Amino acid sequence: MYTMPTCMFCKKLKDRLVEEEISYVEKDYKEHEAEWNKVKMLTGVPIFPTLKVDGRYFCPNRDFKSDEDAINLIKGIEVEPPIEVTLDVIYESIKTTRTQFENITQQFGMVLQEVRGLKAEIGNLSAVFGQQLNTSLKEQANQRNELILEEQRKSKEMKESLKTD
Length: 165
What we know:
Distance between the termini: 105 Å
Strand order of the largest sheet: 1-2
Oligomer: single chain
Strand content: 5-15%
Radius of gyration: 36 Å
Order of helices and strands: EHEHEEHH
Largest sheet: 2 strands, parallel
């Protein structure tokens, strides 16, 4: 198990391994830097704790989500022998990955299309509310102007009445 001294998930998994009486070898990434760099390159997942069981790597958030998942994964490996990796296995894995990628791409396209539709709706709503707001502001300005004119008219009338008195 590749670990980092300050990793709380590493500590939690180590405690669970001891509880389950599963033996393991801990490899601090700093003490085994060259080996850890190879693991990062192979897995593409530089996260701790990374497990190596029977020559296979298991990474958090890719192969297991919790210490319980990791324990079950390890126990499952102890029961089932590893699959022999042949060109056929690799080919089938690549086909499956390609199909999954195509599905994700298609789903992303649908989400993107929906986001664009929502953006257009927001733009339309903004235009409508903008027009309503603009109309409302114009009405308020007209009312204010009418009040000012009314006040000016009254003021003028008062001045004229004072002049005639």
